[in-house]
Design brief:
about 260 residues, alpha/beta, Spore Coat Polysaccharide Biosynthesis Protein SpsA, Chain A, two-stranded antiparallel ribbon, 10 helices, globular
Length: about 260
């Protein structure tokens, strides 16, 4: 089975422009993320799925410099972008990651993938996000091409197309859903994702304290640093537990229902 890790990336973020290309220690954060995944046992065969927008030529150039395949698709129909990228590169199993997770832990990602592989006859979709118990920013979703294709064919709502997997985990009667849990629920305690300027400053501090060219640092290393320097948590503390897409999903559903009614 061919496992492909597809990372969606674009420069057009509304909250923090070109965030994935922000520099830390002389490298764009997207490059740091890719390098961290090189330490994964399962998730190091990477495809970058970006948009056809001119602004995303920079992401294409970085990907080519790193010798990674790229698929360019629709900016807003990200589900279609994933489907066509997976089909083009003949993925049997898709690992979905988003580029706003530069602190992704390859061990955590491998744990989610391994859980899926050990239960391939039991689940159609496995993640560590439903419910989330890891620090926000270690998000990993795993599913076979057949699940992606079914979602691609049947998803009709705008938020389902834009956010890729809501149709899957919103329909447990159709898809068998599995979840990997952290030993302790840290989702509402620590925020490691990249959405706001304060997130960038936090992530920058983590890399500047822990980065090494010779080895990767893991979740445990970050926790050790935060225990030694608890003031770092305060940098983006006001956004902890405020995943934009989770917190706005219900409003997106309501907005779409209103639009359909008016239509």
């Amino acid at each position: 089975m061919l496992i492909k890790t597809i990372i969606q990336a674009r420069t057009g973020s509304t909250r923090l422009k070109a965030k994935v290309l922000r520099p830390v220690l002389g490298k764009p954060l997207l490059q740091h993320m890719i390098e961290r995944l090189s330490y994964s046992k399962y998730a190091n065969d990477i495809v970058i799925a970006t948009t056809k927008n001119k602004a995303d030529d920079a992401i294409v150039k970085l990907s080519k410099d790193l010798r990674l395949p790229v698929y360019r698709g629709d900016e807003h129909d990200v589900l279609d972008r994933y489907y066509r990228a997976a089909k083009k590169y003949k993925a049997d199993i898709i690992v979905r990651l988003t580029s706003d997770c530069p602190l992704i832990d390859p061990r955590v990602t491998d744990r989610v993938i391994k859980y899926y592989l050990e239960n391939v006859d039991k689940y159609d979709f496995v993640s560590n996000m439903h419910p989330p118990t890891f620090p926000d920013g270690l998000d990993t979703e795993v599913f076979p091409f057949s699940t992606l294709e079914k979602a691609w064919r049947e998803s009709k709502k705008l938020y389902e197309r834009e956010h890729v997997t809501p149709y899957i985990w919103d329909n447990p009667d159709i898809f068998r859903i599995g979840n990997v849990y952290n030993d302790k629920n840290l989702y509402y305690v620590e925020r490691w994702t990249l959405d706001y300027e304060e997130d960038y400053l936090f992530i920058k501090e983590i890399f500047e304290h822990l980065y090494s060219k010779d080895k990767v640092f893991y979740m445990e290393d970050i926790h050790r640093l935060l225990s030694e320097k608890p003031e770092l948590i305060n940098i983006n503390k006001k956004y902890i537990g405020t995943s934009w897409w989770l917190n706005n999903l219900e409003s997106l559903k309501t907005k779409e229902q209103i639009m359909r009614t008016k239509g």
